[in-house]
Amino acid sequence: MDLGLQGKVAIVTGASKGIGLQTAQTLAQEGANVVICARREERLQTAVEEIKEATGKEVHYVVCDVTDDEAVKNVVTKTVEHFDGIDILVNNAGTSSANPFMTVDDDLWQGDLDLKLFGAIRFIKAALPYLQAADQGAIVNVTAVGGRTPGAASFPTSVSRAAGQALTKGLSKELGPDNIRVNTVCMGLIRSEQIEKRWQKEAPDKTWEEFSQSFTDIPLGRIGQTQEAANTITFLVSQAASYLTGVAINIDGGSAAVL
C-alpha cells in the first residue's frame, strides 16, 4: 500500500532512541523528509547514521529541549528553511515517572507536565501555521494507556498523559476545519532502554524472549517492539488514515481495560 508520504515533511521529537527513532526511520522509508530532535547531540548524530544506514536516506537533526520555547521555535524554523513547510508532527518526547501520590513534590509535578504536556503544546503552536498551509496536516501525540486507566502509584505520568489525550481530542475538533488531523497513540509496555534495564535487574538469567513473555497480564503474551509502535504512528499520519481524527489507539497487546 502506498501511504502517500513521499515528499511529506515530518518533525519527530524525542527521536534519538526508542519509539521516536524507529518512527523517524519508518517515515523515511516511506519517503518522508524527516527532522529529528532531542536534547543530546551525540545521540542524535548516532540516530541519523542509523537511519541513513537502514534507509539510505538523509535525515536532519536539531538539538532541542522541548521545555524551552525558543529551542522549539528553532526546530520549526530550521525545518521550514530546509524543506519549505511542515506536514507532520509527532510529539514523542517524554519519560516515565510513576510514584505514589504523596512522594511527588511540586517540582516533579511541574517538570513532568512541562515536558510531556507543554512540550507538545509548544511544538503544536510553533508548527501550526505551516500545518495549516499544508495540503493535509497530521499530528500524533504519543501518550500512555495509564492516562486512560490510571492506577495506584502512577503519578505524575498518568495525569500528564491524560491531559495529552484531552489536548488531542479538543484539537481534533478545533483543527478539523483546517484539514489537520490530531490523534494519539497510548503506549503500554514497549521495548525500551528502561524496560531493558528492568530485564537486566529483575531477570538477568532469562533471555529477552523469556522476560518479554513473563507478563501474564498482556493478552498477546509479550512486550511490544518499537517497530510495532512506529508502524501505527506512521499509519496515522499517512493518507491511509485520512478520515481518522480524535482517535486514541492503545498499543499495549490488549492489556488495557478500555477500548
From TrEMBL:
Location of the Ketoreductase domain: 8-178
User: Do you know which Pfam families this protein is assigned to?
Assistant: adh_short_C2
Q: Which keywords has UniProt assigned to this entry?
A: Oxidoreductase
Q: Name one GO molecular function term.
A: glucose 1-dehydrogenase [NAD(P)+] activity
Could you say which residues form the signal peptide? none
- Cited InterPro entries: KR_dom, NAD(P)-bd_dom_sf, SDR, SDR_fam
- Alphabetical list of NCBIfam families matching this protein: PRK07231.1
* Source superkingdom: Bacteria
Gene Ontology BP terms: bile acid metabolic process
Q: Which organism is it from?
A: Aerococcus kribbianus
Q: What is this protein called?
A: Glucose 1-dehydrogenase
Similarity remark = Belongs to the short-chain dehydrogenases/reductases (SDR) family.
**Record-linked SMART domains:** PKS_KR
**E.C. designation(s):** 1.1.1.47
